[in-house]
């Protein structure tokens, strides 16, 4: 199995385990609890989580959005907000909400920047550019 396939499979297994644990009210780490919260904020994907081991990539990407990537991006931003690292994420989300966006919509805006950043990390094989990320998300709230 290639590293990429292995990572995908591990991610699916993790999401499935966390989801199952949440259904039986098992205690979760803060990060996993955030993941469950994000999953609950996307009821349109609920039918997928319990059978992630059987869902094909084609079915996952049917709507043009990969639900796994989508919730992982959400979770990453929630972790950034909870940890205050970088601090601007929380501030920009608040500013966007003051401009009329829902919290979910504000997270999507930040998420679009994060996706672009991840794209460059993978394509150019470079580390996370925190300053560049902060600069770009600040632009969102102008
Ligand atoms: Zn979303």
How many E strands?
0
* Strand-residue proportion: under 5%
Order of H and E elements: HHHHHHHH
Could you estimate the helical fraction of the residues in percent? Answer: over 70%
Tag the structure with descriptive keywords.
binds zinc ion, globular, 8 helices
SSE topology:
Blueprint: H1 3-23, H2 30-40, H3 46-49, H4 57-60, H5 67-83, H6 88-98, H7 103-124, H8 130-140
Would you kindly provide a written description of the structure presented here, covering whatever features stand out?
This protein folds into 2 domains: 1-65, no CATH class; 84-142, no CATH class. It is globular and about 45 Å long. Helix content is 71%, strand content 0%. It is mainly alpha-helical and 142 residues long. The structure holds zinc ion.
Summarize the structure.
The chain has 142 residues and is mostly helical.
